[in-house]
Specification:
The protein has about 300 residues and is α+β, with helices and mostly antiparallel strands. The protein is built from seven helices and 21 strands.
Length: about 300
């Protein structure tokens, strides 16, 4: 995708918030070239209600990613939608949300992908820019690690480990491209452990959670009667989450995001570490990247 893209027409979603349990209506609107991804809290009119989808606006990372503007207006659990936009190559969009949280839908990015693909994308005349990783930038936090490595194309490598027989140790690696994202990542659902549910409710979280929008693990294995969508659905969902979080860099990243046992906190920290080190990356035109890839293919 050489030029920037937006939606060809508005897309409407309705559902509940995973953590708030509230009904939410959301409209994805086309936007002008260079606008980027901007959330608008359409239910708030007494102060600035626009929040740019940028890593520096992230202020909460517990079981989801929340962005907040200087007026204190926020939108929570944006990662699945951000993954869909990044995976499909949407650069510019205005996201109007009537509520405090993006609707969880089925716990994956698939519903977003389906409707966005139905309306299609529109190409702008403005060239698309990307962040090219020049040297490794890695961070560690206890048993977690994450960072960016130089690579010819945007890609992601994730490894997870859980002490549960249905999960264990899993890993995956994907090139970030629309068809690959749609087929192999988008439909992987969020997951949680039944033993943690009461504690989450007490903390004001997971009020909208159910087996309709999450894979639930109990002592006997997978509680959902339909089972898994992929045998390694857990690590694929972690890749989905990571893609949504690193999309807050504000541009495609030509490099490999590699993470072990990632979560929203370390995903955000890795993006900030990259952007804060001007020697580790540079701006490039996607036209030049595409021309270079074609030359190598010859």
């Amino acid at each position: 995708m050489i030029n920037r893209h937006t939606l060809a027409a508005p897309v409407v979603f309705a559902g509940i918030g995973l953590h708030s349990g509230e009904r939410v209506r959301m409209v994805l609107q086309p936007a002008s070239a260079g606008a980027g991804i901007v959330f608008v809290r359409s239910d708030i009119t007494d102060r600035d209600n626009r929040i740019a989808a940028r890593a520096t606006n992230v202020n909460e990372v517990r079981l989801g990613t929340t962005i907040t503007n200087e007026a204190g207006v926020s939108v929570a659990t944006i990662e699945h939608l951000m993954a869909a936009l990044a995976g499909l190559g949407v650069d510019d969009a205005v996201i109007e949300v009537e509520g405090s949280e993006v609707p969880v839908m089925d716990g994956s990015s698939a519903p977003f992908v389906k409707l966005i693909r139905q309306v299609g994308l529109k190409s702008h005349a403005m060239p698309r820019r990307a962040i090219q990783v020049l040297r490794p930038v890695m961070i560690e936090d206890d048993e977690r690690s994450a960072g960016f490595l130089p690579a010819l194309k945007p890609s992601i490598e994730i490894e997870i480990s859980f002490e549960h027989a249905s999960v264990g140790r899993q890993s995956c690696a994907f090139e970030i491209a629309p068809d690959i994202f749609s087929d192999d990542i988008a439909s992987a659902r969020t997951f949680g452990f039944r033993k943690d549910y009461e504690a989450l409710l007490a903390a004001g979280l997971a009020r909208g959670g159910s087996m309709d929008n999450a894979v639930v693990l109990d002592d006997d294995g997978i509680a959902n009667p339909e089972g898994l969508r992929f045998k390694d659905e857990f690590v694929r969902h972690k890749a989905l989450d990571a893609l949504g979080d690193i999309a807050l860099a504000g541009a495609p990243i030509i490099g490999c995001y590699r993470a072990a046992r990632p979560g929203h906190a370390i995903n955000n920290a890795a993006v900030r570490a990259l952007l804060d080190d001007p020697t580790s990356w540079k701006w490039v035109s996607m036209r030049d990247v595409d021309a270079g890839a074609m030359a190598m293919a010859r």
